[in-house]
Amino acid sequence: MAKSTYEYIINHEPNGSSYEDIQTVKKAIQTIKKQHPAYGYRRVTGELRRMTHLVNYKKVLGLMREMQLLSTAFNKRSRKYNSYKGNIETIAKNLINRRFFTDRPYQKLATDD
Questions:
Q1: pLDDT for 86-97, tens place per residue?
Q2: Could you say which DSSP state residue 90 is in?
Q3: What range does the domain containing 31 cover?
Q4: Domain annotation covers residue 25
Q5: What is the structure's pLDDT at 47?
Q6: Domains in the chain: how many in total?
Q7: In this structure, are residues 21 and 63 in contact, taking their beta carbons and an 8 Å threshold?
Q8: Counts of helices then strands in the chain (DSSP H, E)
Q9: 16-29: average pLDDT
Q10: DSSP notation for 3-32
């Protein structure tokens, strides 16, 4: 290791979050989840930023996984849109039955459904 790198590491404070900062964020996450149990990590991150805790969403997600506080009410599968409303109208009978040949014009007319 170069001497300059060693001196830099010794003389500078690390950028990572300290233990006390993580503990305060954990307490804040727990209070938010008590007030709003349906909040997921994205909304919890927004609340933390509103409370002036500058935290990345990935850190919040990791802490919530660690504390087992992730919301189970919503997931990608339950949120998908489904426009199926069942059989609303009667379905027309297939009168042509793939017999498209005819000897006169305009005898068999069909449209897309």
A1: 887 888 888 888
A2: P
A3: 18-66
A4: yes
A5: 96
A6: 1
A7: no
A8: 4, 0
A9: 86
A10: HHHHHHHHHS---SPPHHHHHHHHHHHHHH
More confident residue, 81 or 35: 35
Higher-confidence residue: 83 or 43? Answer: 43
Q: Is the pLDDT of residue 79 over 90?
A: no
DSSP category for residue 16 = S
pLDDT at 113: 61
Residue 84 in domain: no
Q: Is 53 part of a structural domain of the chain?
A: yes
Chain position carrying tokens 């040949």: 101
Q: Which two tokens stand for residue 103?
A: 């000897």
Residue 35 inside a domain? The answer is: yes
Distance in angstroms (rounded) separating the CA atoms of residues 113 and 110: 9
Q: Angle at Cα 40 formed by Cα 19 and Cα 48, nearest 5°? A: 45
Please report which helix (H) or strand (E) contains residue 89, including its range.
Answer: none
49: amino acid identity, one letter: R
Question: How large is the C-alpha radius of gyration of the chain?
Answer: 31
